[in-house]
Amino acid sequence: SDTCGGTYALRSNIWRDKAADAPDGGQGTKGGKIMKHILIFAGTTEGKELMEKIKHFPVEVFVSVATEYGKECLLKETEEERAPYAKHGEVQAGNLNIIAGRMKEVEMKNYISRQEIDLVVDATHPFAREVTKNIKEACRETGVPYIRLLRKPVQKEEGLIYVSSIEEGVEFLEKTEGNILITTGSKELSVYTRLTDYRNRCYARVLSTQESVEESVRLGLEGDHLIAMQGPYSEEMNIATIHHVKASWLITKESGSAGGFDDKARAAAKTGTVLVVVERPKEEGSTFEEAVERI
Length: 295
Hints:
By secondary structure, the protein is of the alpha/beta class. The chain is 31% helix and 24% strand. It has helices at residues 45-54, 68-74, 105-114, 129-142, 166-173, 198-201, 210-218, 235-245, 261-271, 288-294, and strands at 8-16, 34-42, 61-65, 82-85, 90-93, 96-100, 119-123, 146-148, 161-163, 179-182, 202-206, 226-228, 247-253, 274-278. The strands form two sheets. An eight-stranded mixed β-sheet has the order 4-5-6-3-1-2-7-8, with helices on both faces. Helix 3 packs across helix 4 (129-142) and helix 8 (235-245) packs across helix 9 (261-271). The protein starts with 7 loop residues before the first strand and ends with a helix. 41% of the residues are buried. The model is unreliable at 10-33 and 77-81 (pLDDT under 50).
């Protein structure tokens, strides 16, 4: 899973040519220009890196994150540097304006319209298919251009078990024996309850958020069978976790280097643990460099 988890939307302003909107007829305070609006939906390392990249442009950045936890992951400034932004209930730190709260499709459309967005970049997690669907529909209905920011692909490796979904992974694991370290997140954790004796076999590693922990406990994964901590996880940390739970199997999403996949793969290889990989959905879009150039 990624460092902060969750989905967040970032509104960035670059130079805007709608001079008529300006009270001074187009003579803005920065170089005599008004800034355009760019909205980035994210929940990934790439989303955070894109935010870091464009915040050095002559822009003002607005970020809407799914949770308070995600907001704190993005905010590095001290409390003294933060100030409330009364109009939108946002928290301000430097040129970043961050607000927490999940958005449904209608809320996305309202946000895009209210903020007069000129371009939307979808930097959500490769497996957040429903969110991507909603973002595309919101852009279509508002007539705003859409860019899908892609994560770098992962080459298939020999010796790994590849499945098309968590459900297929559970079907495979049902035919096996031994402890299972689950690193696919808390949202689909309920699928693992289909496993025989799942309470004894499964060990869930989830983000240390109240939502994730409560869901794990609700499903009966608690005590030694619940590991709640903040990533990213190094190869050494993965090895230590595998040894701690005596895992024979480790199931993960094909999240790429940014999502910690490489460290998991190396840890599994060094400990003799079989890696079960949920393959990434195929999609089209832009590279990080292409997205930055477009912005």
